[in-house]
């Protein structure tokens, strides 16, 4: 397989999306090699700072996956994530960072195929956008 | 024993920090009694050469205000660092980049274009003349300080010992800092010489804040007359109090709040916050549109959040160069 030179930091919620990714793995679905998974208890745990820090540390994209609306283990964490990420994306745009570099979506524990689909879509998007080279220079 | 020597210098700033020194009022006489002012271009006649002629570490403390925008400022910051035992970043601009730091949403080219270019309505410049670092004239060569692409805070250029925050710093904080320096009772290097509590912690309006907030309408302070007693955030007016330290007044709610204006964040964040903007995004996402969130569509949430017109400019008004991203990426 050809080595890709970009990384997508992927935050997966413990209760739905991590299980979903696991299912994609056991079903041997094709997933991009660029994703680096970080398991968090809830998509609502992902602070905007995590996303920006990921970019500063060299990530080209950040994918955040949580339970579908209404299914959050903590009832409302994913709603909070939704509001945060919308505002964060607007802010990132003002910094000249393409909004498509951040994606928040929902994957349930049974949706292995959906996980693989989203991960592959994200990898394609980031491949087109290229790396965030100017930010690396800050470190 | 000779009196301790003190220097003041300004970089990219408005002059308000010099005012803040003058605002010490009669107290400045006490200061002058205790120290020798050896350099203060704004108020007294000294030349750069006077500083160059000094021995290293001869100055006890240098107060430098303003952000770093040109190579002259950078050179003077370095020179004062070499000649001073202590360097204090004085005021929001040298602490975090301040208002001049907002220029980091553009670059040198776009700034020159809007200041000298043909699209600037108040400029008549058909030959497109722009300031050059070196220009040749019949009499010889003229040199101007080079203009940097990115505005920096003082500590991004030189080693800074302490910070006195604020736009401009409250005189009582300045007096306290001078007292601490003279008495040799300084805290750990790198400390911001102000209270560590957030503004909300001391704000008298905090009592009016409801247990649970769920805002549906964000108002801009220019569009409404705020209730003089109620919490701004509870009213839907964005106030940076949660992510800003108290200290702009010795007691009570703070300068802007007392004047019925929301906090704009000039004192910077409490010690554990590294980036004001991202924290404010979290804070606002926790209080906007909670009611009925289960039934909201993606578009409805987007519409709700889109009421915040200029999040980056508002949240990083005083701290853009010190934010995690520091500047806009220009393609």
Structural overview:
- The complex is a heterodimer of chains A (139) and B (331).
- By secondary structure, chain A is an alpha/beta fold.
- Chain A has one domain: Rossmann fold, CATH 3.40.50.
- Chain A has a 4-stranded parallel β-sheet, with helices on both faces.
- In chain A, helix 1 crosses helix 4.
- The model of chain A has no long low-confidence stretch (mean pLDDT 93).
- Chain B has 3 domains: 130 residues, NADH:ubiquinone oxidoreductase-like, 20kDa subunit (Rossmann fold, 3-Layer(aba) Sandwich), CATH 3.40.50.700; 39 residues, no CATH class; 124 residues, no CATH class.
- Helices cover 27% and strands 13% of the residues of chain B.
- In chain B, the strands form 3 sheets. Chain B has a 5-stranded parallel β-sheet with strand order 2-1-3-5-9, sandwiched between helices. A two-stranded antiparallel sheet of chain B has the order 4-8.
- The chains are: A alpha/beta (139), B alpha/beta (331).
Brief rundown of the structure:
With 139 residues, chain A is of the alpha/beta class. Chain A has a single domain, classed as Rossmann fold.
Count of helical stretches of chain A: 5
Radius of gyration of chain B: 22 Å
Instruction: Work out the helicity level of chain B.
Output: 25-40%
CATH level-4 homologous superfamily of the largest domain in chain B: NADH:ubiquinone oxidoreductase-like, 20kDa subunit
The whole-angstrom Rg of chain A is 14 Å
Poorly predicted sequence stretches spanning 5 or more consecutive residues of chain A: none
- N to C succession of SSEs of chain B: EHHEHEEHEHHEEEEHHHHHH
CATH class of chain A: Alpha Beta
The unreliable regions of chain B are none
Number of strands of chain B: 9
The assembly state of the depicted protein chains is: heterodimer
Largest interface: which pair? A-B, 28 and 36 residues
At the fold tier of CATH, the topology name of chain A is Rossmann fold
Strand pairing plus helix content of chain A: what structural class? alpha/beta
- Beta-strand percent range of chain B: 5-15%
The number of strands of chain A is: 4
In round numbers, the mean pLDDT of chain B is: 93
- How many structurally independent domains of chain A? 1
Helix share of residues of chain A? 40-55%
Q: Let me know the average pLDDT of chain A.
A: 93
Termini distance of chain A?
30 Å
């Amino acid at each position: 397989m050809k080595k890709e030179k970009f990384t997508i930091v992927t935050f997966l919620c413990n209760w739905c999306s991590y299980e979903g990714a696991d299912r994609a793995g056991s079903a041997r679905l094709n997933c991009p090699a660029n994703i680096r998974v970080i398991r968090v208890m809830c998509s609502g745990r992902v602070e905007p700072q995590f996303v920006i820090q990921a970019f500063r540390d060299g990530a080209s994209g950040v994918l955040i996956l949580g339970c579908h609306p209404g299914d959050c283990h903590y009832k409302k964490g994913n709603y909070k994530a939704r509001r945060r990420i919308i505002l964060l994306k607007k802010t990132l745009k003002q910094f000249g960072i393409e909004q498509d570099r951040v994606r928040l979506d929902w994957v349930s524990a049974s949706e292995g195929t959906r996980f693989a689909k989203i991960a592959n879509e994200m990898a394609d998007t980031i491949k087109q956008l290229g790396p965030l080279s100017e930010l690396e220079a800050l470190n | 024993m000779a009196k301790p020597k003190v220097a003041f210098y300004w970089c990219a700033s408005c002059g308000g920090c010099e005012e803040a020194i003058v605002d010490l009022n009669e107290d400045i006489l006490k200061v002058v009694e205790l120290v020798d002012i050896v350099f203060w271009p704004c108020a007294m006649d000294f030349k750069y050469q006077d500083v160059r002629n000094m021995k290293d570490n001869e100055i006890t403390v240098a107060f430098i205000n303003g952000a770093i925008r040109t190579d002259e400022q950078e050179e003077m910051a370095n020179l004062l660092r070499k000649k001073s035992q202590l360097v204090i970043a004085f005021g929001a601009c040298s602490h975090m980049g301040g208002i001049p730091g907002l220029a980091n949403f553009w670059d040198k080219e776009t700034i020159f274009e809007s200041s000298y270019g043909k699209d600037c309505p108040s400029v008549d410049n058909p030959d497109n003349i722009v300031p050059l670092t070196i220009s040749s004239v019949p009499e010889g060569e003229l040199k101007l300080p080079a203009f940097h692409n990115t505005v920096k805070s003082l500590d991004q250029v030189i080693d800074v010992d302490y910070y006195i925050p604020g736009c401009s710093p409250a005189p009582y904080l300045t007096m306290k800092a001078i007292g601490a320096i003279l008495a040799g009772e300084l805290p750990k290097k790198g400390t911001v010489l102000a209270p560590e509590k957030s503004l909300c912690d001391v704000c008298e309006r905090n009592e009016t804040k409801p247990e649970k907030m769920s805002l549906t309408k964000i108002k801009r302070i220019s569009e409404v007359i705020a209730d003089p007693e109620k919490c701004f955030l509870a009213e839907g007016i964005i106030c940076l109090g949660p992510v800003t330290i108290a200290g702009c007044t010795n007691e009570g709610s703070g300068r802007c709040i007392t004047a019925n204006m929301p906090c704009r964040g000039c004192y910077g964040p409490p010690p554990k916050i590294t980036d004001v903007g991202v924290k404010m995004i979290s804070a606002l996402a926790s209080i906007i549109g909670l009611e009925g969130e289960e039934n909201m569509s993606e578009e409805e949430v987007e519409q709700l959040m889109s009421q915040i017109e200029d999040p980056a400019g508002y949240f990083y008004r005083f701290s853009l160069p010190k934010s995690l991203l520091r500047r806009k990426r220009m393609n």
